[in-house]
Design a protein that fits this description.
Layout: E1 4-9, H1 13-28, E2 32-33, E3 42-47, H2 52-66, E4 74-78, H3 79-83, H4 85-89, E5 94-98, H5 106-115, E6 137-140, E7 142-143, H6 154-158, E8 162-163, H7 166-178, E9 183-187, H8 201-209, E10 216-218, H9 229-234, E11 243-245, H10 253-259, H11 265-278, E12 283-290, H12 297-310, E13 314-319, H13 337-360, E14 366-373, E15 380-384, E16 389-392, H14 395-401, E17 405-414, E18 417-422
Parallel strand pairs: 1-2, 1-3, 3-4, 4-5, 6-9, 9-10, 11-12, 12-13, 16-18
Antiparallel strand pairs: 7-8, 14-15, 14-17, 15-16, 17-18
Helix pairs in contact: 12-13
């Protein structure tokens, strides 16, 4: 019987890509993948450390994973393994840690530790992993961040911004397309900083669109100051998903200044307006931090007002979490915990209503969507180009079209979710 492995991934799409890379290396060595929680020879947790809540969730999953390990422990990688290496290694459930730069070596080194023998062959990031536990393919285009946001630990655990070679990206993209991957999800920490072989992000996206095959490209998260005119022009291309995630963090200029964010409220809204003129039905998502040190009620009201004006399709909301080693960690809060909790509830309500209004604007329409399995693994979900998740009623057709792009009618929009059906022509 082959040795088995399982992986649990937390955090960003770059982590999802890197878990696919780790899995690829295990699979090419003859190992078999099993679901996280099933007994396995090697259990891996790929961690995130963006907030205290992320840290707690990672530690919980490490303890859970150890119970399914034949060796009584797990191997930990990712950003928490970088930022809190000693603390993670002190956990009795941890067999070893790997930094982000060591993910390409994990399969070989874990195999060495389990077999107690040297394994000469090493893998590298040049490999082109296919999707692991997904249908859409995460395509890494860059790593790291040169921003110095006062609250963010990411630059210290991911390093400075550096771009993956253009030729390597194109090679990997062709492998994904040849394997029938319906969507290429461009992944990285600050993908808008991409620069290689005279290509910026827009040039790279345009080159990917020139490849043959039935696929689409999703740009995902990009800093507002990285949105160029050329990129905005591309948003109207049928091969580009009408979806951008534009991190905001706050609608107040004074708080944006304290956060060391490189734009103002006016500049952010200007980018939103330009994007909407190019792609009127685009889904715009964002991140907002509630309770940043210095945030007054007036500052928070400005954030609520910007949410109204921007018309976000969704909001990822975070309560400020001081990260050791960042400038904001030593800043004193201006609001009580109760005030911050109340603000969080008000933002959740406003964001919920905005998201519901956006989803309802597509009621009765037909959307080109990737057919995926739902979280239970029993049913099917469609992911539209504008990032609506639609539970599918006709599961027989969904099973036949699983992993491809189908026309999906959005029949029901409700607070608890969307429902629809595949249109058979």
């Amino acid at each position: 019987m082959p040795k088995t492995f399982s992986i649990k991934t937390l955090g960003c799409k770059l982590n999802q890509y890197e878990s696919s890379l780790i899995a690829h290396h295990f699979l090419t060595r003859g190992w078999a993948a099993v679901p996280f929680g099933d007994e396995a020879d090697a259990v891996i947790v790929n961690t995130c450390t963006v907030t205290d809540r992320s840290d707690r969730k990672c530690r919980t999953l490490i303890r859970q994973g150890a119970r399914s390990s034949r060796w009584g422990g797990v191997f930990v990688t990712g950003c928490l393994a970088e930022s809190s290496k000693k603390e993670i290694e002190s956990m009795p459930e941890v067999l070893g840690t790997f930094g982000n730069s060591e993910k390409g070596e994990m399969a070989a080194r874990i195999e060495e530790s389990i077999d107690n023998a040297a394994v000469s062959e090493r893998s590298s990031d040049i490999d082109a992993p296919l999707p692991f536990l997904h249908t859409r393919g995460f395509l890494k285009i860059q790593e790291g961040c040169d921003n110095n946001c006062s609250y963010c630990i990411v630059p210290s655990v991911r390093g400075r911004a550096r771009s993956r070679p253009f030729r390597e990206i194109m090679y990997h993209a062709e492998k994904l397309i040849d394997a029938g991957c319906p969507e290429l999800v461009l992944s990285g920490i600050t993908i808008g900083s991409y620069a290689d072989s005279g290509m910026d992000l827009a040039g790279l996206a345009e080159s990917l669109l020139g490849l043959e095959g039935n696929f689409r490209v999703r740009i995902t998260s990009i800093e507002p100051n990285h949105v160029t005119g050329k990129l905005i022009e591309l948003l109207g291309h049928p091969g580009i998903c009408p979806h951008l995630h534009l991190p905001l963090q706050s609608g107040s200029d004074s708080i944006l200044s304290l956060m060391n964010r490189p734009y103002t409220e006016k500049q952010y809204l200007s980018v939103v307006g330009e994007v909407r003129r190019a792609s009127p039905e685009i889904a715009l998502g964002t991140d907002i931090i509630v309770g940043f040190p210095g945030e007054s009620e007036d500052d928070f009201l400005r954030t609520l007002g910007l949410v109204d004006r921007a018309g976000f399709a969704y909001v990822h909301q975070f309560t400020f979490s001081p990260r050791r080693g960042t400038a904001a960690a030593s800043m004193k809060p201006a609001a009580t915990q109760q005030e911050i909790a109340e603000r969080g509830a008000r933002l959740r309500e406003k964001a919920f209503r905005a998201a519901l209004e956006y989803r309802r604007s597509f009621l009765g329409k037909t959307l080109q969507s990737v057919v995926e399995k739902d979280r239970s693994g029993e049913g099917f979900t469609a992911v539209s180009g504008n990032y609506l998740k639609i539970s599918l009623e006709n599961t027989a057709e969904a099973k036949a079209l699983y992993g491809g792009i189908a026309a999906v009618a959005l029949d029901t929009v409700a607070p608890e979710g969307n429902r629809g059906r595949i249109i058979i022509s």
